[in-house]
Design brief:
- The chain is mainly α.
- The chain has a domain of about 200 residues.
- Helix 7 packs across helix 10 and helix 18 runs antiparallel to helix 19.
- The longest helix is centred in the last third of the chain and has 32 residues.
- The radius of gyration is 21 Å and the shape is globular.
- The relative contact order is 0.09.
Length: about 500
């Protein structure tokens, strides 16, 4: 039990090379699946421990912080660990049929897909759990490099171009982050985040620190696909395999947002970030423009995966909008939407994975009549779509409610109105899919069957989670409020 923080990262890290050397895809999948579910169990235990007893500090190799590398777990990253590991385990449960039929790899190379998946999970968990700023960069590179590989395995040749574009922009973002961390080290002489938080106020008036803040903001903004730094995301989500898109859309950008939260609220502090640097004057307009423009662009897409990719840019805008409010309610809305949007997008992309498995593509015209030929798949898609819109009794409603309340608390009623308006735009692009699937006849010359249970069960587990967390909000809203209070240093 004492070594659970280390096992959270070590378990998937050791599993990756084992998957590669097994030589058989089925064995590699089973090993990766066991490791991912054990990782989820560890994260659940860590969250329970943090909520019961407070912050956990784990010194790697018994080197005490700030000299050694510290894994420091509070309610914020324990919450994120649960999100990442849960999505990683559920999506991997559904991965085998898609990997067997829908990725561009020969049979003897498919174990390497699972190795890359476990490396990506390792990097995401490592970024979340570490208390060392340079370790954040190391784990960022592990997750990024494996993400490029995973995206490039899509059957469409454009997946290679998408992966290359992601590589270029991701490398620029990582470079900016490394420069920012280097400048912080120059000014403070430490890389431990808790120690940085104590030393940064002593040099807060220096130009070097302001430059470091700017580099970190732009670098992490690229990684989380903040408008207008989102250009890598639509192609990566549209042309990568559905199982990869479901995993990355629910975890990678969310972990980048977590890093942003750590930088703004833990390292620099809310006072410096939002009063001295006036970050809200940058984040708020970018979030609002991103929400509106990406929702508008999504309406005109004929590739449903690309439609949901632009929807992700808009949903990231909602999260950044909550963060830019810099209040307990606004931050609660942003953190809760991290959880809810992970469930929503994993549900929708896995449902599209079921569609692609049977009809070969996730294009709008290929989905005609699927409400009758694939009723369970499309029902799960509809539930995810309703949650994306923010219909009451779904998880998406909870975070949007907090967002509207947070905007009204600040007296920003036009912002609250824009949140409601853009939710109506989501109705339009989700309705386009529903209309084709339920109101157009299926093709006469094709026999389309329902997706196999191996795909349907994980998809429906996520769909039902969208409904459950719309009614029982102690985890997605309750823990989010506690995490927001921890970041702001106030009583929840």
């Amino acid at each position: 039990m004492d070594h659970l923080p280390a096992l959270q990262v070590v378990l998937p890290l050791f599993c990756a090379p084992l998957c590669a050397v097994l030589g058989r895809a089925n064995l590699a999948w089973m090993l990766a699946l066991a490791a991912s579910w054990l990782t989820f169990l560890i994260s659940a235990l860590l969250l329970h421990e943090v909520l019961q007893q407070g912050v956990i500090s784990y010194a790697m190799g018994n080197w005490p912080a700030p000299l050694g590398i510290e894994y420091r777990i509070d309610s914020v990253n324990a919450y994120m660990l649960l999100i990442v590991s849960a999505i990683g385990a559920i999506v991997l449960t559904a991965a085998r049929p898609i990997v067997d039929t829908r990725i561009r790899l020969p049979e003897n190379k498919k174990p390497w897909f699972y190795a890359a998946y476990m490396l990506c999970l390792t990097g995401l968990l490592g970024m979340t759990i570490t208390g060392d700023a340079f370790n954040v960069f190391v784990f960022l590179e592990i997750s990024s490099l494996s993400s490029y590989v995973l995206i490039s395995t899509g059957r469409d040749r454009r997946a290679l171009t998408a992966a290359y574009q992601y590589l270029i922009m991701g490398t620029i973002g990582a470079t900016f982050i490394l420069i920012g961390i280097g400048l912080l080290y120059v000014m403070t002489g430490t890389l431990n985040m808790a120690d940085l938080a104590l030393r940064i106020p002593q040099v807060s008036n220096t130009r070097t620190l302001h430059v470091a803040f700017a580099f970190l903001t732009v670098g992490v903004g690229l990684k989380l696909a903040l408008f207008p730094l989102h250009l890598w995301l639509p192609n990566a989500y549209a042309y990568g395999p559905s199982v990869v898109t479901a995993f990355l859309s629910a975890t990678a950008t969310k972990v980048a947002i977590y890093i942003l939260l750590r930088m703004f609220f833990t390292l620099f502090g809310a006072e410096f970030s939002f009063k001295t640097m006036r970050l809200d004057l940058i984040l708020l307009p970018l979030a609002l423009i991103g929400i509106f423009s990406a929702s508008l662009v999504a309406i005109f897409q004929t590739n449903v995966k690309r439609m949901l990719a632009y929807s992700s840019v808009a949903q990231i805008g909602y999260i950044i909008l909550g963060i830019s409010l810099a209040s307990l309610t606004g931050l609660t809305a942003g953190i809760a939407h991290l959880f809810n949007h992970a469930l929503i997008k994993a549900t929708l992309f896995l449902a599209l994975g079921c569609v692609s498995f049977r009809v070969g593509a996730a294009k709008l015209e290929r989905m005609a009549g699927l409400g009758r030929t694939m009723p369970w798949t499309m029902a799960a898609f509809v539930i995810g779509g309703l949650s994306l819109i923010g219909v009451p009794l779904t998880s998406g409603f909870i975070s949007k409610w907090y967002l509207v309340v947070g905007a009204l608390e600040r007296g920003w009623w036009p912002v609250a109105m824009l949140v409601l308006l853009t939710s109506l735009l989501a109705v339009i692009y989700i309705w386009r899919v529903v209309e084709v699937a339920y109101f157009k006849p299926p093709p006469e010359n094709e026999v389309i069957r329902e997706a196999p249970l191996a795909l349907l069960i994980p998809t429906w587990a996520l769909a039902l989670a969208n409904l459950y967390f719309g009614l029982e909000t102690s985890l997605n809203a309750g823990v989010a409020r506690q995490a927001a209070a921890t970041l702001l240093g106030v009583t929840p």
